Amino acid sequence: MSRRLGLLALAAAVALLAAAPATAQTVYLAFGDSITEGAFDESAEPGYPPALEDLLTSRGVNAIVENRGLSGESTGEALSRIDSVLPGGDVLLLMEGTNDVNQNVPLTTIIFNLDQLASIAEAAGLGAVHATIIPRRPTATTDGNNRTTRNVNGDIRALAWESGRSLVDPFDLFMSTANVYDRYYVGGDDNLHLDEEGYDFLATPFADVLTGVDNRPPVTGRVIPFDDQQMTPDDTPILIELFDFGAGIEVGATQLLIDDQPVEATISGDERRQQIRYDPPTPWSGVVFVGLEARDREVPANEISGTLLQFVVDGAQFLPGDISRDGRVAGDDLIALALAFGSERGDGRYRTFADLNEDEQVDGADLAILASNFGRSSL
């Protein structure tokens, strides 16, 4: 069965949800970088746009989805071509920022550019929908731990809420999908691109949002401290934004956890946006793990539960080999070193944190250091 026919057959089981009258055709402009264009997708119609068009059609939406992706483009470069792609469109699907992360563009610049792109589309009479950028494989040449990508996506969610625009959240879907990197990624030189099935999968959250299907839990926006923040002052408060772009947050069900224990946090806001604050009653020490439990008002409810972030308090001491800085040398540290093993400075796989003896190569000497402390804890 062909890719397009296969998607139609799969979607036939979904109840028809018309986002617009059947007689009115909506032209969606999928605007973005190589993840939109469909790099490494060898099918006749690459990228997520053709799969999205099929899904929308199967759900009763008279839609055309045009692929306006451009490989290698940053949000700044996108500003120079946005005007040329808008004529004839009704809604802009905006998923940009992957290359900004590659280029270490400041977060404030990325969000400013995204807001400008959406505003230009709105000024031209189009609707604008923001989308988070997809996660990167651990072997990606930049941000393989997704810490920068998480921060970018948190601010994209906040931008969507503040501007009153819709949000598609593929990052949340991908990160909650088992074996996502093995199932849907092909890599490329930078190890962050999808294969054909991955692009089909990427179309799903777009189709759900555009047809009113709510199957995603509340998501975090801006978070302080950020994940894996080092040298964090011991009196730093925890500040978390929580958003829901569907049925709304179940007010009263949100629970903050510190080192797996529930704590009394100050929670304000409403079903669309909550602000969570926790001031430590005593100074932080070592490594602090912050968890969050929340659910929405959908039936059945979409829930989140688990560790949200960890941060390292200023003055904490760690054993050599504790790459993850969680206070113990364990299997996750061994995996992190293994991903960079055999590399040297200048190689795409080289990571400073895995070069334990700082000789500009990751080899058996670094493995021996880790092994000497394996299973030990410093906290």
Describe, in plain words, how this protein is organized in 3D.
The longest helix has 17 residues, at 107-123. The chain is globular. α1 runs parallel beside α3, α3 (48-58) crosses α11 (196-210) and α7 packs parallel to α8 (147-163). The protein has 379 residues and is of the alpha/beta class. It is built from 13 helices and 16 strands. The chain has three domains: 3-210, 3-Layer(aba) Sandwich (Rossmann fold), CATH 3.40.50.1110; 219-313, Sandwich (Immunoglobulin-like), CATH 2.60.40.1220; 331-373, no CATH class. It starts with a helix and ends in a 6-residue tail after the last helix. The protein has helices at 3-11, 34-37, 48-58, 75-78, 82-85, 98-102, 107-123, 147-163, 170-175, 180-184, 196-210, 331-340, 364-373; strands spanning 26-32, 63-69, 91-95, 127-131, 166-168, 185-187, 193-194, 219-224, 229-232, 238-243, 255-258, 261-263, 266-269, 273-278, 287-295, 303-313.
